[in-house]
Amino acid sequence: MFLLSWDPAKGKLRGQAKLGKLLRAAVLIDLQLNGNVADDNGRARVTTAAAPTDPVQAAVLEELRAVGPRRWRHWIDRRTHTTVRMVRDELARAGLIKVEPRRVLGIFPAARITVRHPLVRRQLLNAAHDTLRPSRLVSRVDLRDASIAVLAATADLRIVISKEQRLRHKDRLAQLAVRVGPVVPVLKKSLQQSQYSAGG
User: Fold this and answer.
1) How far apart are CA 99 and CA 84, in angstroms?
2) Where are the transmembrane segments (predicted)?
């Protein structure tokens, strides 16, 4: 989701205000698909499955384990800035992005991010778009690919799923969201609440 949030035309991340929650939701979905976390009546419960090797997933799973079962919303809204930094640092360590420190207005610390392998981003984008093809049965779509499309649509990340695509494939995205699991509707509510709070 981090790579897909990067706009190659503008050379910067899009939707940064939503990125933390989006990444938290993506990690939770990954943990659920891995079998590390299960839905327990609206709460995320850690299972006895072997811990993931991915450092970000492992860190979030450790948070869940330390605190105990909480509602999904609790985990989506928690430590969002830290998660963005962790994901960014892991992508940099893997050589997928380059992070260059800079200052905005000569004062505020920031980072210039460059995607080093645009083909990887393109493959992720194609996989997300492929899940929307009507010829593919919803039940046969890879859940990780489906989660990319559904998360992007939920967060209104138009660089991945355009407004027109979202409207045209509304029913299919809803069906895919059901397959992806409980995190998606909770993310939607969390983002709506943030938007409402910001506007109010």
Assistant:
1) 13
2) none
Q: Which residue spans within 47-96 are E strands per DSSP?
A: 70-71
Q: What residues contact 49, with CB distance under 8 A and at least 6 apart?
A: 34, 35, 36
Q: Residue 163 to residues 12, 133, 155, 156, 187: CA-CA distances in angstroms? A: 20, 16, 11, 8, 18
Global pTM reads 0.92
Closest to 60 measured CA to CA, from 181, 183, 142, 170: 183
Q: How far is CA 6 from CA 1, 52, 113, in A?
A: 9, 26, 8
Model confidence pLDDT, tens digit, residues 96-114: 999 988 777 777 777 889 9
For the stretch 129-153, pLDDT in tens is: 999 999 999 999 999 999 999 999 9
